Amino acid sequence: VQLVESGGGSVQSGGSLRLSCLHSGYSGNRCRAWFRQVPGKEREGIAMIDTDGNAKYANSVNGRFGTSQDNEKNTVYLQMNNLKPEDTAMYYCAEARGRCRGLQEYLYSYWGQGTQVTVAS
After folding, report:
1. pLDDT means over runs of 10, the chain (121 residues)
2. 118/105 Cα distance (integer angstroms)
């Protein structure tokens, strides 16, 4: 399984970015999620989407971020709006087999290398 994130960069506070996660195309029951990590802190799960496209979000991003998937392109997206300096982090895409169980790091077996997002105040 390969997961490759892209779309990170630098943006001003209040701006938007869209991250992409190109995956291997596993079509069975699975959960794909987005995490982020700041150096010295634990990895935080922020969004997940199941096989049917149902999504759930962490409180910290609910209402500002949205995740979606394009199965024909083997890609999952994270649309990030109204970005804040505290959103600055390395963002990771992850995948788990089976239904979505939560946003805990240990639930996901497959990980991408991450893409950096920096939000300037």
Report:
1. 96 98 94 97 97 97 98 97 98 97 98 98 93
2. 22
